[in-house]
């Protein structure tokens, strides 16, 4: 089975679900903006700073369908997946600010974070490396006869790595319960799609593994949600992995230091018109579920929540240098 289909908008969306989706997309946007456009520029965040501006619909529309005992393996563009799994803005900000109260206890200052209790695999910096690990997690679930599944996220660039092919091959042969979410944002750092793969779509790679795949508009959170619901049903049913290729665009640079001058003129402006947040808001207004005033209130509440979390995180201590050698296997 390898049908490439364009998902239609789910008719089963309720106002409650739409509000939840909107909350997480706006929280991701505003939290990342605070991190990149303020804290990073104030010199409070060191090292790389990666955001998923314009891609919020992908982690939101999919991770919202995860159950507490499922596992999520996010990429560096999937802040909403962390939020949906229960990681708080306070914890995330403490992580970025290198404080002891963050998920890595101040060992790292960006998105290389996870949480075993919430079943979030930490982001692995080496692109493509999460795919075999996701296979391993899913295999353990299968061995234990657990009814859980894995959500594994990555970009188009990851699909040209050997790890991707090995991990997918193993998962499909073993019929592992995995939903793959590809954010195809048309660039892997500065490399455009046609310079790193000879097929038009990432989904075109799926038939080689006898894996079902579909292509969706990654800027349409309802379409991502509907496709994920199909994929989840497939994976929970024991029918093996399922790939959803979400077509999108990275509105910012690869990371905060990147002005992305390699992006052709006009492309960013064109994609900005397809902003996933504005799109859901329009849908909600058209269905008479919310008004512009509601959106303003929601955003203000989120901004207040973030400001409170920033103040809290800035008061947290840095790790004690005496703990430097804790949690390492061997000190040479
Ligand atoms: C093996 C490896 N090569 C290079 C890098 C540096 N790097 C980090 S993210 C990235 C781009 C990845 O592109 P893609 O998988 O499409 O994800 P996107 O950043 O577009 O979401 C690169 C080249 C890395 N982390 N790992």
Structural notes for this entry:
The chain is α/β, with parallel strands linked by helices and 332 residues long. The protein has a single domain, classed as Thiamin diphosphate (ThDP)-binding fold, Pyr/PP domains (Rossmann fold), CATH 3.40.50. Helices cover 39% and strands 9% of the residues. It is built from 10 helices and 7 strands. It has helices at 15-40, 57-63, 79-84, 89-96, 130-143, 162-173, 221-236, 267-272, 276-286, 292-315; strands at residues 71-73, 150-155, 178-184, 187-188, 191-192, 213-217, 242-247. Strands 1-2-3-7-6 form a 5-stranded parallel β-sheet, with helices on both faces. The radius of gyration is 19 Å and the shape is globular. The structure holds thiamine diphosphate. Thiamine diphosphate binds at residues 75, 77, 125-127, 154-158, 183, 185, 187-189, 250.
Keywords:
332 residues, globular, binds thiamine diphosphate, Rossmann fold, single chain, two-stranded antiparallel sheet, disordered N terminus, five-stranded parallel β-sheet, alpha/beta
What is the topology?
Blueprint: H1 15-40, H2 57-63, E1 71-73, H3 79-84, H4 89-96, H5 130-143, E2 150-155, H6 162-173, E3 178-184, E4 187-188, E5 191-192, E6 213-217, H7 221-236, E7 242-247, H8 267-272, H9 276-286, H10 292-315
Parallel strand pairs: 1-2, 2-3, 3-7, 6-7
Antiparallel strand pairs: 4-5
Helix pairs in contact: 1-9, 1-10, 2-7, 4-10, 5-6
Bound molecules: thiamine diphosphate.
């Amino acid at each position: 089975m390898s049908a490439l289909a364009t998902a239609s908008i789910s008719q089963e969306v309720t106002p409650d679900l739409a509000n939840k989706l909107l909350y997480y997309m706006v929280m991701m946007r505003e939290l990342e903006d605070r991190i990149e456009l303020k804290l990073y520029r104030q010199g409070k965040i060191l090292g790389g700073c990666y955001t998923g501006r314009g891609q919020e619909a992908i982690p939101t529309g999919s991770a919202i369908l995860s159950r507490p005992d499922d596992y999520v393996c996010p990429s560096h563009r999937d802040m909403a997946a962390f939020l949906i799994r229960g990681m708080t803005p306070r914890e995330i900000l403490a992580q970025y600010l290198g404080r002891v109260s963050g998920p890595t206890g101040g060992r790292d200052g960006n998105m290389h974070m996870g949480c075993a209790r919430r079943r979030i695999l930490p982001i692995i910096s080496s692109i493509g490396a999460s795919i075999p690990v996701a296979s391993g997690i899913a295999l353990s679930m299968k061995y234990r006869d657990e009814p859980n599944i894995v959500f594994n996220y990555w970009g188009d660039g990851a699909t040209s790595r050997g790890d991707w092919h090995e991990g997918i091959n193993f998962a499909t042969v073993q019929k592992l319960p995995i939903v793959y979410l590809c954010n195809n944002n048309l660039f892997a750092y500065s490399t455009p799609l046609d310079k790193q793969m000879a097929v038009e779509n990432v989904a075109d790679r799926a038939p080689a593994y006898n894996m079902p795949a579909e292509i969706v508009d990654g800027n349409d959170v309802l379409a991502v949600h509907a496709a994920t619901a199909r994929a989840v049903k497939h994976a929970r049913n024991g029918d093996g992995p399922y790939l959803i290729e979400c077509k999108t665009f990275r509105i910012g640079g690869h990371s905060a230091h990147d002005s992305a001058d390699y992006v052709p003129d006009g492309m960013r402006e064109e994609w900005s018109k397809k902003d996933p947040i504005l799109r859901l808001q329009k849908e909600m207004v058209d269905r008479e579920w919310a008004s512009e005033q509601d959106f303003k209130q929601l955003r203000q509440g989120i901004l207040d929540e973030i400001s409170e979390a920033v103040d809290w995180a800035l008061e947290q201590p840095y790790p004690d240098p005496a703990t430097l050698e804790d949690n390492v296997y061997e000190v040479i």
